[in-house]
């Protein structure tokens, strides 16, 4: 990283000429906002931030950076929590937020064409009048962008039933790390041959920068039922989840909050009326057709009661539904207020191993001297243990990092994975060898090199910094100086 | 070149290399058919093909070999059928991990015991293996609601000609760890490696299933019906249209939900303007016939037109006329597909008809030839219609997985 006086002056000049002076930042104080995304523990200041307005702009930016051998990193709203938008070696940060037009909405063919800077929830709001919505709903949906969602293959509470981002992307226009602009898929489904859309979604902005997205729109469900049930113990709540699935029911969402989290929420301004003495609260959302919904709800209530639900509250309208969800949606925010820093893990385990993993988490908390707050997507085994710590205390930081690693080892040991929806980014790259062999990682690196052969696009992500094995070219590359 | 049969027998033992049978792809006959008994043997057989530069095509039950461009060279058919174990299946996880040679119907039977399913129904599903289903990314009427196989593949292990086995994805339904190479393999026709393990996301089986048959007086009425079906409060699992007697169209709509939801939808769908002709509890013949329009065969041409949902019915009418008498065609609007099947016949006729079909498509639509005789393919018909820039990416990817181009050479396109 260098200051603006020495950073690639000719590149900056060309970028200003291309985009206009208002679309290029290079003064240190202007760059401060962009030195991290929501993984605030890792910070690197970019040398410049550019704001493209079109795919043509992005293509030109990538070509200029390649010509000057300067690293570039795409960014949406910076809500990612794995450091995917961190300019890890400085260079140019390509901020896509101004590419925020919904270019087309087609009600009867049920798709929208959007630019990458469109905010997730804004799309759903824009198509609501047509009886449609965009199904993937990450917690940050009020601020995260669809380009970022594509990069990270984002999920959300409702992906249990509706699938994650990749299941809703029909096509992409993407500027590859080679500078080539590629269109794959589109409103016509069923492209033959190897599934490039499936590969590109979730490539964490290391293969290319997405410039247009065709997304599938889903009809709004006719009926939604939300149930909230406190249980004496976490085991009971977990068993209720298992029984719901075993009964052949696929709810729209199945979320659990543990006792520690209930206490946090009830102590806050976001009080949701969750009983403090409960060991866990289970939130079940059912959606679909109106016909048969009463019977389905009764069936779920029976399962909850059979597993020891202390009570069952059912939301009767959108307002009540919002209330029941309030505690869940605010949990992380509330935790942020009781300590200077919070650390959220994002491991995944097979559903059938959930209760045992939660018990082990409690033990890990005791071992490392932290309280663990558990708020998680129980339906698909995606845990989000949250640890409150003080980032100013070096010892606590060391312990929280050690505990994070043990949590991931635990997830992998029961057949799970490192991340359910947040991505690997910089945060988890050194844990990749827990899940993948040297050969697996080398293969992934070689695939990346097809799209990003110079490695100048979004460097130092996903692959371990110090792989336990030597991997020739693709894992990392020295900082680029720029010419 | 050495004799593939002898070389493979040296690696696998004589029992695993057929002395009498052969497999034919696009008119080329294999010199050897290898049937490795387990994963290790398959990896060794593939490694031998790699080092001897034998052109090798992974083959499951061989039911979809007509898909793809004409294979350039073909020495060894590497059959996966003996790798037929379900490796892991805990119903509580709604996930199954299987070997590639597992027959789809066998897996479905096992899942059904636990009230679960894999909602994929391509033509010839009765004969397919899971590996073949994934490698072809083949879909049927139910794509309308459930999407392609790609959406169900959550992890895979892949053997490559360098003798390595690499993994991507995992065995959990929600996973963003690493790049999704397992999704890339969907539709790859065995061009990047041989799948040796596949993890699949499953669905609960719906409790009730019924089909409504309806008749439309003309294409306009049918088009309106499909728009309403998409806009209204319906969750059809499949909805197909076809023509028996012009200008009338027949429509079949499948509902799979709770008993109450199926009953309510059937009543409501009858009020959408078409004439209902039957409600079927046992609908398997109807859907089998609709699926089979797309079944690959040596003597038939099957063309799938990818289109927008609202373009499907007009295309059905136009294409049926172009495909000529005796052709069969089905529109699958919500899946974005119209499928046309006609006899290949002799001479240049088939090629001319394919070109004629392609010439009249609306902008954005494209036609994939899912089956055609070898001479039609070798006459220069580009079957898969992959756009040039994407094909170039596939060529570069090919160099990563199979730089010597021994795996299914040419089936995806030139240079792949």
- CATH class category label of the largest domain in chain A: Alpha Beta
Q: Give the oligomeric state of the chains in this entry, treating copies of one chain as homo and distinct chains as hetero.
A: heterodimer
Stated plainly, the CATH topology of the largest domain in chain A is called: Vanillyl-alcohol Oxidase, Chain A, domain 3
Count the helices of chain A. How many? 15
What can be said about the biggest beta sheet of chain B? 8 strands, antiparallel
Question: Which class of secondary structure composition applies to the elements of chain A?
Answer: alpha+beta
Proportion of residues in helical segments of chain B? 25-40%
CATH top level label of the largest domain in chain B: Alpha Beta
Describe the structure.
The complex is a heterodimer of chains A (483) and B (416). In chain A, helix 1 (9-19) packs antiparallel against helix 3, helix 8 (234-246) packs antiparallel against helix 10 (293-306) and helix 12 runs antiparallel to helix 13. Chain A contains 15 helices and 18 strands. Helix content of chain A is 34%, strand content 19%. Chain B is of the alpha+beta class and 416 residues long. Chain B folds into 3 domains: 1-205, Uridine Diphospho-n-acetylenolpyruvylglucosamine Reductase, domain 3; 208-289, Alpha-Beta Plaits (2-Layer Sandwich); 293-385, Alpha-Beta Plaits. Chain B has helices at 4-12, 39-52, 104-112, 130-136, 143-146, 181-184, 219-231, 259-270, 284-292, 312-323, 349-359, 374-378, 388-401, and strands spanning 17-18, 24-25, 28-29, 32-34, 56-59, 76-79, 86-90, 95-98, 116-117, 153-159, 165-169, 194-201, 203-204, 208-216, 236-242, 249-257, 275-280, 300-306, 328-332, 337-343, 366-371. In chain B, helix 7 (219-231) runs antiparallel to helix 10 (312-323). The mean pLDDT of chain B is 95. The chains are: A alpha+beta (483), B alpha+beta (416).
